[in-house]
Structures are given as structure tokens and as C-alpha cells.
## 1
Amino acid sequence: MNHVKERKRRRKRRAMRRMFWRSMISLFGISILLLTWNLTSCALRYLSPPEERNHEEYVAGGEGSHTADFSEEAMETAADVSGLLLVNKSHPLEQSYSPDLTRIREYGVEVDDSICEPLKNMLAAGEKEGLSFWIASAYRSTERQRELLDEDIETLIRRGYSYSEAYEEVVKETMPVGCSEHATGLAVDIVSKDYQILDEKQAGTDEIIWLQQNCSQYGFILRYPEGKEDITKVSYESWHFRYVGVNAAKAIMSQGITLEEYLDLAGV
Ligand SMILES: [Zn+2]
């Protein structure tokens, strides 16, 4: 009888030992799996294109909690910025480009259909604050751009410039044909109704101060900021606003960067 009991006990002990080792092997297996997963994700992160990493570093390298908040926003918007149209001296607009134009009667100008509502909302919000705006220029056809350029060149030639000197001088202020954002219908020159001259004093008007502070809420950016002339290749234009959508506009204006820099950061 005792002999039988003893055998049963031994069998039980053996079964328990087997269970112990089985669970140890499973635990070991799971740890190996987790370790492999971690190593793979690390490797993938370091194998990702350098632009992406630079972008993260750039964002993280900024100052204060505001920039930390922005990093998520920037990552989110980076995915859909490829739809943003970049037009500058090295990215002329395709000749076939033709915007869907809508006329804004109050100002007698035409803009791309997509910016009509945001533009009206922005100006209405400013007017509620007691400001008065005027749209000095919106959509301009390529032909009109050519006329403007020719007029300015002729003026300088009359003052004694050679054609190439005049051209070089004029394109500092007026975009060459095909390189003007005005041909996209997505850009507007907005001025104070009481001061409509496009010069450095425009920046000091209440209207421009308000626009520069609030434009991003409506999806607009100050396209040619002061101090960024080496990037935009255009002198500071306190009045030229470009529609890029609210997400991109907030990211660009909060960092004080240009559309060129924003697209670079997003790796587009
Ligand atoms: Zn303009």
C-alpha cells in the first residue's frame, strides 16, 4: 500500500516539475520575441530616410513646451503637405495651370474657389475688430504678370539701365513670369484701406499687424517674411498672404518659417 502511495507521489512530483519547465520555456520564448521586436523597431528607426530624422530632431531641438506640442502637429501635417503648391523663382508654375476662379465683388478681384470662404471669413473677423481692409491684388494671369514686368523694366531703361540690369533689378520686387503666386489664385495682397501703398510703412498699419497675428487661423501665411529673403528670394512683403490650409499655416506661422522651409522639414 505504502509502495503504491510513494509511486503516486513521485508521479505527481514529476508532473509538477514538467509543468514548471514548460512554463519556464514559454516565458523564455516570449522574452526572445519581445527582444526581437524591440531590436527590429530600433533598426527600422535608424534605417529610415535621414530627412525624417532631421525633421524630428529639428522639431525637438526647438525651445519650450510650445515646440514640444508642435512636434505632434508637424508630424500629423507632414503627411498631407505634398498637396501644397510651391511657386517661387526655382519652381515656376506649369503653363497649363488654370485655377477655378471666383470673383469677390466687394473688392473686384478673382481668387481660387478654395480660398474664397476662408479669405472672406478672415477679413470679416478683422472688420469686427474695427479694421478696414482692401485687396490690392489677387489672381493675376501670366499675361498680366508679363505686362507688369515689362512696364517696370521699361521705366528703368528710360532711367539709363541696360535691359539685363533693369531685368535683374525688377525681379527683386516683381516675380518673373510663371513664378508669381498670384497666378495660382491662392495669394492675395491685402492692405489697409486707409493706406494702400505697398511699401515698408504698410507693415505698421493696424490691419497688417492684425493679419500677421491672426491669418494662420484662417489658413493663410505671410509668404515673404522679413529676414527670410535668402530663402524666398523676395524682399519682405508685409501684405502678401498665401493660403495653405489651417494646419500648415499654424505650423508655419508659429515657428516663423517659410513655405520652403516647411516643405523641406516635411521631406516633400
Ligand atoms: Zn503679392
## 2
Amino acid sequence: MREYSIAAIPADGIGPEVIDAGTTVLASLEKRMGDIKFNIETFDWGSDYYKRHGVMMPADGLETLKRFDAIYFGAVGAPDVPDHITLWGLRLPICQGFDQYANVRPTKILPGIKSPLANVGPGDLDWVIIRENSEGEYSGHGGRAHRGLPEEVGTEVAIFTRVGVTRIMRYAFKMAQSRPRKFLTVVTKSNAQRHGMVMWDEIAEEVSAEFPDVTWDKMLVDAMTVRMTLNPKSLDTIVATNLHADILSDLAGALAGSLGVAPTANIDPQRRFPSMFEPIHGSAFDITGKGIANPVATFWTAAQMLDHLGEHEASERLMRAVELVTAAGILTPDVGGTSTTKDVTAAVVDAIHSSNV
Ligand SMILES: NC(=O)c1ccc[n+]([C@@H]2O[C@H](COP(=O)([O-])OP(=O)(O)OC[C@H]3O[C@@H](n4cnc5c(N)ncnc54)[C@H](O)[C@@H]3O)[C@@H](O)[C@H]2O)c1
């Protein structure tokens, strides 16, 4: 029996609904496989915890998480707590504290799900976006001066380090190399941002020499949105900065049918710390408590977690089950269906147990 300890942090909004769905599916995989066991411990950290304790997680939160093999995360954000407090109080300290510098965001159109793009179906949009996850525009550098006065100023400084850019480029080239097309697009904005982004481009060029079998090109981030929309087939693996990839991956999720199907893995490639797996969506205040949150992104990120843990067979089994269910039209309203979170979860559990999956 192979055992894995998983820290579940459902947190806010629809987070608890989708993580509940995810742990149900993991339990059914456990039964189906017979030789793996997930010891899941759930933490009540998040905005309600903040309202009770004045912090999003305890001071020793990272110490507590260190002993787990992986973290399964829902979403943070509450209507009555400022977003920078929720994000910087929980999700970012975990990503940055555990140096999860590679954020891997696969997107494809699943069978049965309709892209808003005309004449684009499964196979026409199949990307992996690699997001730099430790520095760049989200490094937290900057400050406020003359607070409250007319001359008040706020600065937000993007930090690009040679170490940080080199390691994410290498990760992205490796990812491209592992995929059939061996093709990488490096997203930049070096026309307008002439320091960090020019270094980003130079390092991409340097690292490319280590991967002669990978073809690559470069796109300005604004033009990239056009290419993603008008020519999705021309893309495969994509690498971008923390901010650029954050924006582009929401667009990618929408083009693949819904934010509710888009997963993300925050990876420490050196495996010094647990990596964290989550859907890319947020708390979705508009549908919280209605029982209609799409759990597919949370299932897909569980499949990424299984891959990271070396459980490739379980990961493939889970994704096959999800694709069977979407193909059968058992879909939540965000992707045009009438099913609830529980309906989709039950269908995936059934598919996991059916003998041909
Ligand atoms: N990683 C995170 O925890 C994360 C990411 C993004 C936003 N947020 C936070 O979430 C809160 C709401 O942010 P937002 O509205 O900009 O983004 P959001 O992702 O929560 O919602 C955007 C839209 O997508 C829909 N949606 C998202 N996930 C869905 C799902 N699984 N099924 C069906 N529909 C889904 C929502 O209903 C909403 O209409 C904010 O506090 C924000 O800071 C957190």
C-alpha cells in the first residue's frame, strides 16, 4: 500500500464545495485502485478563520504543512475581506514560502464541452501554460508614501532575477520537450518594459541552446491574446511571467469553455516542500452555496497531484472518468448543462468504478 498525506485547505466561497467533491473522487479512486491510500487532513484556514483570529492561517501554518506530501487547495476571497489580505495571507505565502516557482496550467477542450470560439473543438486547443510563480510582478516589492495626502504615491516593483527566470525557462523548455509537438511560445513585453523583460528574452535565448529539439517563438503579451483567440491551434506550451500568465490562463480557461474546468499546479520541482494543487478559479461569490460549482477543475488538479506523486495510472484513470462524464453531457450550468456539483461528482465516481475505465 502506497500512502500519501494530503493537506486539504478548502477555504472560501465555492472552495469547500469543490474540495468536498474532490475528496469524494479521491476516496473512490482509493477503492478502485486498492493499493493507494490518501490520508487527508482538512484545515479550516481562510476568511472565516481570519474573522475569528485576525490572520488567514496560524503563524506556524507553513511548518504544519511541511510534513504533507501535497496540498489540495480550494479558493480564497470573501466579499467582506479585502482581496490583498486574503491572497497575501494564505495562498501567496504558501506558494512563495515553499518556493513553488513553476505554476503549471494545462488547458484543453474536454469532450462534450463547447468552446465559445467558432469551429474550435477538442484537439484544436491543447495548451500548457507555465507561469513564473515566485517573483515578477507579484514579488510584493513596493510601498506607499504620503498616505492619505494629495501627493500620495504607490509603487509596485516587478522583480526579475537571473536565477528565477533561468529556472522557469528551463522548466518550460523541458515541458515543451515532453509534449509531442515540442513547441514553446515565450510571452514577453520587452518593447515597453525594457529592463526585466529584455533580460527575460535574453535568458530564453540562452536556455533554448540546451534544447535544440524544441522549436520556440516569442510573442508580445497583447498580441498573444489575439493569437490565442484567432489561432489556438498554433500554440502548444507557453511560458509567461507571473502577471501575464495569470491573465492569459483565465482567457485560456474561458476559451476552453469555463473557468470551472481549468486546473493549476504550484510545483516545487526540487521537491524540497509540498506542492499545491488547486482550480484556477476564485471563490465565485455569485454561485456560492447554490450547489452548481463545476468540480471538473478540482478533479483535473487532483489528477495533476497524482502525477506529481508518481501515481500516473490513478491520474489517467481519473481524467478518463472525467472525460467520459463530460462527453456524456453531465455538465454544470457554466458549461451549458443542468447538473449539480453532486451529480457530476457521482457520475465521475460511477465512471471510476465502471470496469472499462
Ligand atoms: N486562487 C484563488 O484562490 C483565487 C483566484 C481568483 C480569484 N480569487 C478571489 O475570488 C473572489 C472572486 O473573484 P472573481 O469573481 O474575480 O473570480 P472567480 O473565479 O471567483 O469567478 C469568476 C466567474 O467565473 C465563475 N466561476 C468560477 N469558478 C467556477 C466554477 N467552478 N463553476 C462555475 N462557475 C465558476 C463565477 O461564477 C464567476 O462568474 C475574489 O475575492 C478574488 O480575489 C481567488
## 3
Amino acid sequence: MIRTWIVKVLTVLSLAALVSVAVPGISTDTMSARAQTQAQTQSQPQKQLPTHLEAIGSSSEMWRAVRGGISGETGLKDPKAGTLVQSEGDNLRAVRNGPISEYGGWLLLASVVLIAIFFAIRGRIKIDAGPSGRTVERFNGLERFTHWLTAVSFIVLALTGLNLLYGKLVLLPVLGPSLFATLTAWGKYAHNYIAFAFMLGVLMMLVLWIRHNIPTLNDLKWLAVGGGLFSKGVHPPAAKFNAGQKIIFWAVILGGGSISFSGLCLLLPFEIYPFAGTFAVLNHLGFDLPTQLTPLQETQLALLWHGVVALILIAVIIGHIYIGSLGMEGALDAMTHGQVDVNWAHEHHSIWLDEVEEKRASGHAD
Ligand code: HEM
């Protein structure tokens, strides 16, 4: 009972102190007045705590409690206002600007360097038999629209998202504060709204392509020879999508789905709480994660998760973009006009080509 009252009094007093520091912080006049007051305060001997607060000990103990997240109640509607200082915010910033930015940067760099090495050694993967001049439809208009909707929106999201993480470090010194601020503000709007185009694209991809992306035993055979990507003249049979493409598909569906969901948690902060429940399930598997999380902690975890999954997916997609364009002769045709050379199809998707030709022969083409 006494403790609750102490907490209440502390909260109100500390809130009043914070408001009095924060409110006048705009005009230079008030700033200099504040500086004067601070100087006067510093020159005066330290005042004693009011007697009713002495039960909690010294002011350093009081502030330690505040910094430790002590919470109470206020007259404000928002229950979060009862926590004056949520110190996990510091941890969040430290993790985001520390390991996540650092390892994420290395991951992206590693993916570009690995691709450059692969290109230097293997060169462009050619159609071994040369183009036949005959083509077969690989993706119809709806499939190509879905692909480019997802691809273009993802690229905008990736660039604007990377700007939020690295822009201050990379672009600010080049563009200067004014241009950087304008670009970042517009980038943030683009990031928030174009996210919905990406979500739609991922959903459409799931519906259109899931039946071609169920793992099969043949995928293991494809993987065992590295899909023939590392050696000339090796062409393991594959259906519409080979094992490598199935990995990309599921990375986009699961990774993209997870980024979308955590993005929604950030667009609607303090409304969606996925982590406490997820942690409770993980704890059944032997983890020891906290299951009592405040709305603010939930939102902070969503921010970290969003960044981590996005960085991993960007690294994966860099590899995909390479192999779908520069890395393989004839691949891009599939997503531009939808037709691929029959020899390309025979070398990379022989099972699928046989099925298409069989259907065509029997008059049942899709
Ligand atoms: C400029 C960027 C891109 C290019 C040039 C490109 C190119 C391609 C090509 C040529 C294919 C068809 C491969 C085939 O016929 O077998 C394809 C498929 C696919 N693309 Fe992209 N793509 C790009 C960006 C993206 C992005 C950003 C995503 C998702 C975030 C994506 C997701 C997919 C998926 C899931 C498939 C089906 C599986 C696969 O082929 O790997 N693409 N892409």
C-alpha cells in the first residue's frame, strides 16, 4: 500500500519535472534562461529530498528506479504514460545501430562480393546447345504482372528501408542535411504506402505458384549437383521451378510475409502483440524468453525483427536478381515477354518442358 503511494507520488513529481524541462526547449531566449537557472542550481548546495520521498532513499536511488522502468498511474488515458523512462529504448537503439546495422552491412557486402567472385569464375551461364529459335510460354501476363508488382515494390522498400538504417552514415555526408531530410521524409512515405503493393504481390505469388513449389525428392537430386550452376554442361532435370527457385519462393513468402506482418505492427504501434504469444510457444521448445511484454516492448521487438528479416531477404534477392538477369543467358525473357527458348527450357526445366509439350500435343495447353 505504502509502496503504491510512493510510486504514485514519484510518478507525478517526476512527470512534472520532465514536462518543465521539455516544454520550454524551443526558443533560444528560454534556452538561455534555462542555462542560467541550471548554472544557479549547480552553484547551490544539493537540496534534500522532501521528507515523504525519503523512504525510497537518495535521489540517485529514485532515478535508478525510474531508469529501471518503475511504473505507476497518471491521470492520462494512455497507460504507457505511467512509465516515465522505458530503458529498453536504449537497448533497442544500441542493438539496431550496433550489431544489426553492422552484421547486416557485412551480409549485404558479402552477397555482392560472392556474386562478383562467382561471375569472375563461372561467367554468364550460356545456353549450352545455343538458342533454338523456337520458344515456349513460361509465364502468362498475370504471373509477370505479379512478379513485377512484387519486385518493383520490394526494391523501393529495400532502398528506402536501407536509407533509414544507413542513410545518415552513407547519404547524409554526400547530399547534405536539407536534401537528405527531404529525400528521407518522402522515402518514409513511400516505404509506408508501397508496402501494401508488396503485400498484395506476395499474396498473389503464393496463390499462383504454391502448387509448383511443393518440395519433391527430385529437388534433393538437383541440390546434390548444385543445380549444375557450378559446372558447364551439367543440367539436372527440374519441373517448373527447380530447388533453388523453390528456396527463393519460400524465402519471399515466409520472409516477405514476416516483414509484412512486423511492418503492420509498426504501422499500427501498440495495437498488435505477436511476441509474447510466440515466445510462450518457443518456451515449450526449451527457450527461456520473457512472456510478459509491454506494448512498447512488443513494438520495439517488431522493429528489430522487421530489420533483421528484411536484411536477410535483401541479401537473398540480390542473388536472385543476378541469376535472373546478368548471370544466365535467356532467363530474363521469361519475365519480360513471357517466352523462353526451347533449348533453355530443356536445359533448365526439362520436366516442365516435357509436360508442356505433352499437353500441347494432346491439345490441353494451359
Ligand atoms: C530487377 C529485379 C529482378 C529480376 C531481373 C528478376 C528476374 C526473374 C526471372 C527472370 C524469373 C524467372 C526465372 C525462371 O524463368 O525460371 C524470376 C522469378 C521469380 N522472382 Fe524475380 N526478379 C527480380 C526481382 C525480384 C524480387 C525483388 C522478388 C521478390 C521480392 C522476386 C521474386 C521472384 C520469385 C519468387 C520468382 C519465382 C522463383 C524463381 O524463379 O526464383 N524477383 N525473377
